Amino acid sequence: MLGVSGGLLPCPSALVVMLSAVALGRVGFGLLLVAAFSLGLAAVLSGIGMAFVYAGKLFERFPTQTRLLRWFPAASALFITMVGVGIATRALIEMGII
Question: Considering the entire predicted model, what is its pTM?
Fold first, then answer.
């Protein structure tokens, strides 16, 4: 997921910066801005990856067989379903269908 968000797909912001730099005749400055943007993005994505690695080790310490934790996946699925039903109902009401 981090690869998709960070570089496997073309970045629209970098494209806008480069097209603007070409239009202004400052291609070198555009390349510098895109390089700085890319380095910052790489640092953030690396930090997120490291946080996930260390968070995984942290969660190994917690007990996973408690009764409450076994209900979390079902409860979160129910919550997301209810939010979706609410959004769909509101859209139908605003469209005058309901």
Answer: 0.51
